[in-house]
Amino acid sequence: MAGAAEFDLYRPSEEHDMLRDSVRSLAEAKIAPHAAEVDEEARFPQEALDALVANDLHAVHVPEAYGGAGADALATCIVIEEVARVCASSSLIPAVNKLGSLPVILSGSEELKKKYLSPLAKGDSMFSYCLSEPDAGSDAGGMKTRAVRDGDFWVLNGVKRWITNAGVSDYYTVMAVTDPDKRTKGISAFVVEKDDEGVSFGAPEKKLGIKGSPTREVYLDNVRIPADRIIGAEGTGFATAMLTLDHTRITIAAQAIGIAQGALDYAKGYVTERKQFGKPIGDFQGVQFMLADMAMKLEAARQLTYAAAAKSERVAQGGAKEDITFFGAAAKCYASDAAMEITTDAVQLLGGYGFTRDYPVERMMRDAKITQIYEGTNQVQRIVMARNLP
Description:
- It is a single chain.
- By secondary structure, the chain is an alpha+beta fold.
- The protein contains ten helices and ten strands.
- The protein has a four-stranded mixed β-sheet with strand order 1-4-5-8.
- It is globular, with a radius of gyration of 21 Å.
């Protein structure tokens, strides 16, 4: 996999281009044929997981020291982008594996890294991220889940909501309050296992899009875990959670770009074949202007996302934090807004056909919407950007 020193701020290396080609071929052959069925049946895309694991693409971000591919941030984005181009639900496998495990990579002990990153790298397990709660969405610092120390154990109680891949993942990074008097500085992070006594899951949410990726509540009822499963020092969980989002919002931008690219590709093909008034509708200037705007927005989103990925990698390699908080928020916000506009225009270009499930662009439009919402709504992203102007 490509390393941080092998790409500049905006231009992927030859190795990144080769990775894109290989992931695209795999996605079109093994994932795309099942995308409509996965959406229609709202079932987990097991075919995609099997294909990604077989090709070591399910968690490419895991460092080589723990058996992973050691992919840099841009390579990870490319994998997510190319999978999302054919199936947004499937792209949440590599994306959420990074989201869930990055707190361990950033702040976990060496023992914790070896214990949980190695099976993730092998494809034996998946990771999810538990931050949001019924009454703590954008205000994550208002969470109520508690973790109380009891000798050599921590006992967790609470409810986490909107947890991606809940019930499928084996491991969960859980944020919980350890000192209620300190607000965000009284929040700590833990690894909870699916099979821990007291862990259970709610019914899958009935969603507008990404129907193949289960979203469920996670219930923690006197879950007793060893004390060494805390991630970092007590009270540092919220800081770890926010730093994680600085990096992983970029992967949501990549997902949005992939969805938009899939919609644009399909629309381009359609307008060359669909004829009205004796010629392809792609010959009409109004349609050409729409396609031009779609492509322009997409490329701007891609360049911003790749720039953010480069900054993310430099931070990961020990460089200065620079303005990663601004760039992560900007990439996620701009790319997701662009994806919503592009997929909506793709539906418009297909006319009545675009409004039916016989064509994939309506699914892409539905899938694009969530990229404006999760990992921080785009309204929150604008607040983050305003507070971190470079």
